[in-house]
Automatic annotation (TrEMBL):
It catalyses: L-proline(in) + Na(+)(in) = L-proline(out) + Na(+)(out). Belongs to the sodium:solute symporter (SSF) (TC 2.A.21) family. PROSITE patterns: NA_SOLUT_SYMP_2, NA_SOLUT_SYMP_3. Keywords: Amino-acid transport, Cell inner membrane, Cell membrane, Ion transport, Membrane, Sodium, Sodium transport, Symport, Transmembrane, Transmembrane helix, Transport. The keyword DNA damage does not apply. The keyword Chloroplast does not apply. This is Sodium/proline symporter. The gene is putP. It comes from Aurantiacibacter gilvus. It is a multi-pass membrane protein. Its main location: membrane. It comes from the Bacteria. The lineage of its organism: Bacteria, Pseudomonadati, Pseudomonadota, Alphaproteobacteria, Sphingomonadales.
Length: 485
């Protein structure tokens, strides 16, 4: 790696750490400040923080890689996600912001559910916290895999501190994220997400435009059709099940704790502005990711380049087309995407461990200072688990993300929506939906049904959880009325 590239990356790391120190002085005095930034996030910060923590390395690695291999049909994943995000901002965001305050000023999703259904408070807090920690360990690992791939593709068999480039990338990414997350808490994560979101969208606009202007729009399209006549077809070779599985990614939005927690932190009256900013950012970013995958495939074919891992097309283009300092900026954009999501997930996992285990069972009267410090320890513990999972260099970013996304979407999606809009929902129904959604997804993956049927596991998981909540709530709601009669 050339010196200008290293300088650009070093400046990026320094900026992230500086933001962490700034946030440490502003919002880590109590649990509300450390976990939600005092519920006073500016709409723009909340919007880009939600977007950056949502899209992660998947936006610059997984999605472009899928398009690189299969063509435009993979764009349906992005379309499904955008539709899901629109519904999430309009239906979930305003209600969750209001109800988490009205139901006992809940600081975490499990705490909100417990306050919403007090008869099943312990079961909901423990079950949801376990699901959050398990799936976020996998999800965070996906981000660390992205960091490992970045270093592996850039340094190419050059040992770093005695480690192979992949593991060096995994560890360095984890350490920097740990530093600013442990020190600055939610405000640090949100402010770094805002900066990272700006870097990401600029990179996603610049890169495909440079490739297309350099290779020619018409030539690019011609080359892609030569690769496969259906490469630029929206439906070429796409089955009904394949289409439904692609757009079903949008169902996952309603149950992603690291995204919806941003709704809880927006300052009063800021949801509408945050929604407009967030959806605009997401639209541009997704278009850019599609461009990277498609234009990148044409560029590789035209120039006889070799790409062993399709998920590294962004890295290949950054290293071959730009000045080393600009390359450093583009690689920083990739690190930004990766780190923004990892930091959010670590903090949400930490909040569940501290509020829904430590305070609930071990130290009910713990001081605010103690809770903040315990939260920092929990951030470190979850990151260790993620590093262990990510130590396998064969791990695929898209596959890890898809599994965790489905797990959260099925377990929490129906639960969050119905708890906000359906007054007849009961505590037993909530617990049933949580358990059934997670169990169906894990069973679907473990038995290989996602591969053998082609049906994305979020579809059966989401449907089963919704039915479980509805049926069990109706059954348990009638029982008290009968006994009282």
């Amino acid at each position: 790696m050339q010196t200008p590239t290293l300088i650009a990356l070093a400046l990026y790391f320094i900026l992230m750490l500086a933001i962490g120190l700034f946030a440490w002085k502003r919002s880590t005095a109590d649990s509300e400040g450390y976990l939600l930034g005092g519920r006073n996030l500016h709409p723009a910060v909340a919007a880009l923080s939600a977007g950056a923590s949502d899209m992660s390395g998947w936006l610059l690695l997984g999605l472009p890689g899928a398009l690189y291999l299969s063509g435009l049909v993979e764009a349906w994943i992005g379309i499904g996600l955008f539709v899901g995000a629109v519904v999430n901002w309009f239906v979930v965001a305003p209600r969750l912001r209001e109800q988490t305050v009205s139901y006992g000023n809940a600081l975490t999703i499990p705490q909100f559910l417990a306050n919403r259904f007090p008869d099943k408070a312990i079961a909901l807090r423990v079950t949801s916290a376990v699901i959050i920690v398990i799936f976020f360990a996998v999800y965070s690992a996906a981000g660390l895999v992205g960091g490992g791939l970045l270093f592996e593709s850039t340094f190419i068999d050059t040992p770093i501190m005695g480690l192979n480039p992949y593991m060096a990338g995994v560890l360095l990414t984890a350490l920097v994220v740990l530093a600013y997350t442990m020190v600055g808490g939610f405000l640090a994560v949100s402010l770094t997400d805002f900066v990272q979101g700006c870097i990401m969208v600029v990179a996603l606009v610049v890169m495909p435009l440079v490739v297309l202007f350099g290779d020619g729009w018409g030539t690019t399209a011609q080359v892609l059709r030569e690769v496969d006549p259906n490469f630029l077809s929206w439906f070429g070779g796409l089955s009904t099940i394949g289409f439904l599985s692609a757009v079903a990614w949008g169902l996952g939005y309603f149950g992603q704790p690291h995204i919806i927690v941003r709704f809880m932190a927006i300052r009063d009256g800021g949801v509408k502005a945050a929604r407009n900013i967030g959806l605009s950012w997401m639209f541009v970013a997704l278009i850019g990711a599609l461009g990277v995958g498609l234009a990148g495939r044409a560029h590789v074919e035209m120039n006889g380049l070799t790409l062993e891992n399709s998920e590294t097309i962004f890295i290949l283009l950054a290293n071959t087309l730009f000045h080393p300092f600009v390359t450093g900026f583009l690689l920083a954009a990739l690190l930004a995407a990766i780190m923004s999501t990892i930091s959010s997930q670590l903090l949400v996992s930490s909040s569940s461990l501290t509020e829904d285990f430590y305070r609930l069972f071990l130290r009910k009267n713990a001081s605010e200072t103690e809770m903040v410090n315990v939260g920092r320890v929990c951030v470190a513990l979850v990151s260790v688990a993620a590093i262990i999972i990510a130590s396998d260099p064969e791990s695929g970013v898209l596959s890890l993300v898809s599994n965790a996304w489905a797990g959260f979407g099925a377990a929490f999606g129906p639960l969050i929506i119905l708890s906000l809009v359906w007054k007849k929902m009961t505590g037993m129904g909530a617990v049933s939906g949580l358990v059934v959604g997670a169990a169906v997804v894990m069973t679907w993956i473990a038995t290989g049904l996602n591969d053998s049927t082609g049906v994305y596991e979020i579809i059966p998981g989401f449907i089963a959880a919704w039915l479980a909540i509805w049926l069990v709530s109706l059954a348990t709601a009638r029982a008290p009325a009968a006994s009282e009669a």
